[in-house]
Design brief:
The protein is mainly β. The protein has 3 helices and 22 strands. Strands 14, 15, 16, 17, 18 and 22 form a 6-stranded antiparallel beta sheet that branches. Strands 1-21-20-19 form a 4-stranded antiparallel beta sheet. The chain binds beta-D-mannopyranose.
């Protein structure tokens, strides 16, 4: 059966061999258009197993050139050093009011939390602060204020319910609250074990399109797939539809085997003016891949073939 996401013929688009400094993987990248070019912030494992963030550029969104130096490495001083000593991972980029905001996972002996950084030129980034406590991952910020407030999706961990997608609001991007859960994993479904926001939400005429990852546990280990949900434009805590079908699963050899087998994991997507979206995903936590889809097809899937958002 044909999927709604068409894989780029020359996948993988970026591997460790394209990186001019020693790394073991290239994956889970945020991507954004900046001055007519595509900027990719990608995660790489070093040989000690900890991660850093590199930067690559492209004119067409598929053929990327990696810059000679990493973009972000764990901070060495002060409060940032304490909370990212084990590495920086899975960056998302949001163009908001002319600034480029980067949210990434900071790992340390105290757990994983999300740090907010900002850049205006992609030459360097300034860390603004941690915007979650420990045990949060996958923060994506909406690219505009909604009803006077900034909004974000994230995925706290908890032992008491399956790991779900939450929404929170802020007046200053640093202090967040009014949080509520909006989408839970669906029991015995492809996303039954846990879910998390992927790319920065995409504004469409029918709602905010959210690409998320969902995980299913098998006897052979966890399988990471991608799915879509649609949120109300004026009140994104209102879920208009979560598609029952996944839109992408590990199938290519570099998605099925690698550093972690059976993983497609999305941190970035770029909507184009012609109604096509470029979707980027890490394959098996090892390489970067890309594909395209019609935005209207993804929106229709959410609306026409929904599954319950919060279950019973
Ligand atoms: C998640 C995160 C991702 C990773 C995925 C698959 O928990 O660690 O960064 O891509 O697992 O290993």
């Amino acid at each position: 059966m044909k999927y709604l996401v068409e894989r780029y013929l020359n996948n993988p688009i970026l591997t460790k061999d394209d990186v001019p400094y020693p790394v073991e993987t290239v994956h889970n990248a945020g991507v954004v258009k900046y001055k007519g070019r595509y900027i990719m912030l990608f995660r790489s494992h070093l040989r000690n197993g900890r991660s850093i963030i590199g930067i690559a550029e492209s004119g067409d969104g598929f053929r990327f050139t990696v810059r000679p130096e990493p973009f972000m490495t764990p901070y060495k001083e002060g409060v940032f050093a304490a909370y990212e000593e084990f590495g920086v991972e899975d960056p998302r980029i949001c163009n908001l009011e002319g600034a480029y905001l980067i949210t990434y996972s900071a790992y340390s002996r105290y757990g994983v939390r999300i740090c907010l950084a900002e850049t205006g030129d992609f030459k360097s980034a300034v860390r603004l602060g941690f915007i979650t406590q420990a045990d949060h991952r996958n923060v994506v910020i909406f690219p505009e204020k909604i009803n006077g407030r900034y909004a974000r999706l994230d995925r706290p961990h908890t032992e008491h319910m399956p790991w779900s997608i939450w929404i929170s609001y802020s007046l200053d991007l640093l202090h967040w609250g009014d949080s509520r859960v909006i989408v839970r994993p669906e029991p015995y479904h492809w996303d039954g074990m846990k879910i998390g926001p992927g790319a920065t939400p995409i504004k469409t005429d029918k709602g905010w399109l959210v690409i998320y990852h969902g995980v299913f546990e098998t006897m052979g280990g966890a399988v990471y797939r991608l799915g879509v949900a649609l949120l109300d434009l004026c009140d994104p805590s209102r879920v208009l539809g979560v598609a029952d079908d996944w839109i992408l699963q590990p199938e290519d050899p570099w998605e099925v085997t690698g550093y972690v087998q059976n993983v497609v994991f999305c941190c970035g997507a770029v909507p184009e003016e012609d109604g096509i979206i470029k979707i980027y995903w890490g394959g098996a936590d090892t390489v970067m891949c890309a594909g395209t889809a019609k935005i209207s097809d993804l929106v229709d899937l959410c609306l026409n073939k929904p599954r319950p958002a919060l279950g019973i």
